[in-house]
Amino acid sequence: MFGRKIFRNNCLLPIFTILFLLYDYGVQAQATAPNVLPTCANAVNAKTPASIKAKCLATSGELDTADYVCINSLKTELFKTVTTPSNSCSKISLTDNAYYVFVCTDVAKCTLKTSTDQFAGFLLIYQYKSGQLIQLKNNKYYLQGTKMLSCLKGNSFNSDPTDFSDNGKCTVAANGIYINPDTDSTQALSAKPLVKVTTGDGTASTGLTIAPGNYYVDQSSENGGNYSKLIYCSSATSCQSIAPSDGIYINADDSKQISCTSGTCTSGNAGSTAIYLNPAVSGDLTKALISCTNGGTCDPKNGVDKKYYMEGADDSGVLIKCTTAEGCRRVIASTTAVYLDEGSESSGYTKVIQCPSGYGDCKLVTATEAIDAYIDGDDNHNLIISGSSKYTTAKKTSGFYIDKLNSKNVISCTSDGCTSSPGSTLKGHHYIDGTDATGKKLITYTSSGGTSANTLIASVTEGNVYFIDGSNPKKIINCTGAAGGAACALETPNLTNVFKFYESDSSHIITCSSDGCIYAKGLPLCKSDEISSNEALCKDPSDGNVANGNHCIHEDGKIYKSLTVARKRDTNSCAPIALSVTHIFTSAGAATNFESATGTDIIYTCDDNKCLQVFSSSYKDDTTNNLYSCNDDGACSKETLADGNVYLSGVATISTTQPYLTYGLTQCSKSVGDFAPSDCKKVSSPSGHYINTLGTKSTRNPSCIIKCTSGKCLAMDAGNNSFYVSASEKLIKCGNGDGCAFVEDVTNDSGTDYTKGYLLDYSGLVDTNTSTKLILCTSTKCINPTITDGHYIDMADNNIIHCVDGLCKTEAHGAGANSPKYYLDAATKKVIQCTNGAKCTLIDKPLKGYYLNSGNPEKPVIQCTGASTDPCSEASALTTNKCEKVGNIISDSGIFICFSDDNTLPKANAAVQIQSTGNASHIAYKTLFLEDKADFPGASQKTVDVKINNDGSAYILEEASLPTCGETCNEKYCIKESGGKVLIYTNGGSGLDCTVITGEASSTAIVYSTLDGTSKNPESETPDLAYSCTYDSDGKATKCELVKGYTQKATKTVQCSGWKNDPCTVVDTSSLTTNCVDVDDGNLGKFSNNLGVCFSTDATYGGINLPADSTTYTLFYTTEINPYYGWSKNTFLPLALTSKTVLVTKATVDVTQNLTEYSFDIF
């Protein structure tokens, strides 16, 4: 705090009280005896001589006895009674810069103590400096010899944190570590920066051994076992108290763990065995980490080059990477990554760090006996493989592995490295498992409990069994060998068409052509050596006859009919049927017709050379206009057609790369009149997404979406709570197992307005909650916008979308109940604000200043200039604890704004921290005197008033105003000038005309409102601003002025600064009972038992009561910004006081009168 001087005019004008106050904005306090020395009863100033004896008179008029001390009213001299000569009064000789300690046993019974042995109970301490006696209070400390005393502001001797009546009482300091208060010249701060108190009686020592980078809890900030400050020592002789950043520190006093969250720290035994980043080390591996033992202490630990560590708990989500070049630092993991945990090296690498979706989503996983495989996040040529409860790394150039990080994926390794991608989910597709050197295990796709996963087939059966290669459907896997122990190998089919049985299920066949292989439940296979004779019935592979009239399919791609003749002179036959037509058969192979088709029939379409089965698709018979859908086994049934239905159609086109099977598309869309089956037609070159009529409404919404690219379509699982853009640019929403549907109104889907943000497009999904596409909707259509790296609002959930290198994922933003998080919007370059339990929102008009940036640890702030385009950008902070320029942003255990350019000052005296805690004590106001207006974003001049809010923002304070009226008005307030005066208008009830507001005739009244003009009643609501309006004899407003100060409404008192984004505060008038104290700054309080404007404890000059029925004018000088009245630093602040208001006034005040100086300290 700064010294305060009050000047009062001796020649009072009739209605003016002229008061100048050198003002310092601080925390309110209340002072009552015995927390101050008694004032000598007949104290006078130097211009009014009086006897020395008179200065020692008690309030009763009698002379004090027993060496009791009093102080004169100017706080420049001390006197005490002495016994020799009897009943005399003596002036105490004072030494400049010396301290004086007193013990008070009653209101007026204070004695001077000269020995530290006498320091006990409640004490008062004064420093004599430059002719002034300055009392130590407001959390000041005093060191003398081996004694440390604390003079706390409040909450030290009682349990009420708002009661500061003990401010000024000093006691022996509590045990702990303190910054040396530099009050003992024999123990100077410059040589001995710390004081340690240990014995409970204030006994102190300055002999601590201090190493650079040491941290301690600052005992001066202790409250209920918690600490709001840490002490950081940059060298053996330089330590300072700092606001802590979230994290873990080693307490250099006892090696215990200091844990800090949201500006509050605790110190004690470690809660778990874990590794943490050491905030004291930067750019070096030596002691770059902190290693803590559960229930024990913490020690510094060296980092290892090119190794990774999990910070904190097993599921903390924070990854540390150490390199020789950069030391150890927190890093953002790739979208999907796994690393060996170097923290488990001593136990043989028993853990890995799994990061399934990037930064903030990492966890430690302990190895088991199972064989699991991951791609090494640091080198994709290596796999991390578990076994025997430990992990090892190995370079792999071939093979397939189940990706343990995402069991839907298969890892494929080549000489170029290993990649993870979704495994083939098609029936009959398998992979040879690379973890089994014997080649006995296969990887396949299964559906268990409604979820998809890749599992191992323990072994294959006896004999030859066949599978389609999941990585290339032109190859097959041939497994041969003895029972229970077959080995598998890849083969390339050497025939144009090959049919092989899948395992022991003879109803399914693998069909291979030059295009590749497919798997379905089709016609039985014709045995090849019986076809050429054409004189016998068709034979199946077991040499059995194919039943009379039934059909089989041959490896030449044609369908044959087995026919038994009735007459002996004729021969049985096995002959091909007609080509270039479509045939339908029963499951047994008998020909049938489309009209009588059942749900088990199978369909083949034939060209001039071969016949292909329809499966996982549909066929429309143009003769009957019937459509038949066929499942993945090839079983077909007739569909009921309706307008809007969409189906995959035709036979599969086979590709050697995923997607392996694609189809055509049939869409039902009526042209005119009523819908008819003939309105269902094949779409030419379809593109985009469609809702699959045959999709299953169950977990995963199987096959609910059809995706078409360049005329090739496939069905895919929609997943739960997923979104897509349809081919017609509508939004498709797929629910939690209840299928997919179009969103009819994107601006109000059960209360959600999708136009306010973005959605992950699940058609580009590459991993859980990670996609290569976003969806952006307007009220008329939805599109896939071009993706810019950065952050977007997630309208599907209360998350944030983060895009890096074209990959976008949803992440939890972690905003607390009172601590919002901010991100730079990648599209608009505005600010995204995220709060707890709600969807993030876009701040359409970001404030001019800074927001803490949660989206980029390398650029910890978002700076906004107020520009109409690209108003904000991410910005770096200077890594230093010194301020070189006003407006600088520095990073040193937190983010700070510099309000001083004096680099010799400690950070606490030169900068203020931006914090997002919701804690009222973390709000600050500063006037910045900039060297250049470019030194603070959005500044239009070199002097700016700034609010450092407790929500993580810091911004220029600009005068608030209601919106300017347009040509029409609604029911809200707006303003416009009339005759050079500002008037408030609103809708008068007749159409949209603007009508000036009305009130009581010939009166002045206050109008309360929000910034957008919504009327507010402070009896039950909190306004943003207020206007004082004067009404004429007809009750019409003739002038309205912005309110800066205090007003009353019924039982409420309302304080408005008149600044934008600095809402008014509302309290019960009856609660304003705190007496004026020395740190007051013109705020309302209790003075002389009545409501008044407060400045100090002085009974005469410490405040001004509100007048009963007139107006009093007051003027004072601000040495700091004043948030009560919206007033800048180092300026004169004029106030007009009435019985109900204290407002900034434009009245002219005469300050030329003769002034007398009164001085009051506020230490």
Textual characterization of the structure:
The termini are close together. It contains no helices and 101 strands. It is elongated, with a radius of gyration of 42 Å. Among the domains are: about 35-135, no CATH class; about 210-305, no CATH class; about 875-955, no CATH class; about 975-1160, no CATH class. The chain is mainly β. Residues about 1-35, about 45-50, about 155-160, about 450-455 and about 1150-1163 have low confidence and may be disordered. Strand 52 and strand 53 (about 610-615) form a beta hairpin.
Rg over alpha carbons: 42 Å
- What can be said about the biggest beta sheet? 9 strands, mixed
Amount of beta strand: 35-45%
Tell me the quaternary state. Answer: single chain
The rounded distance between the terminal residues' Cα atoms is 6 Å
**Strand tally, please?**
101
Low-confidence stretches: 1-33, 43-50, 155-162, 449-454, 1151-1163
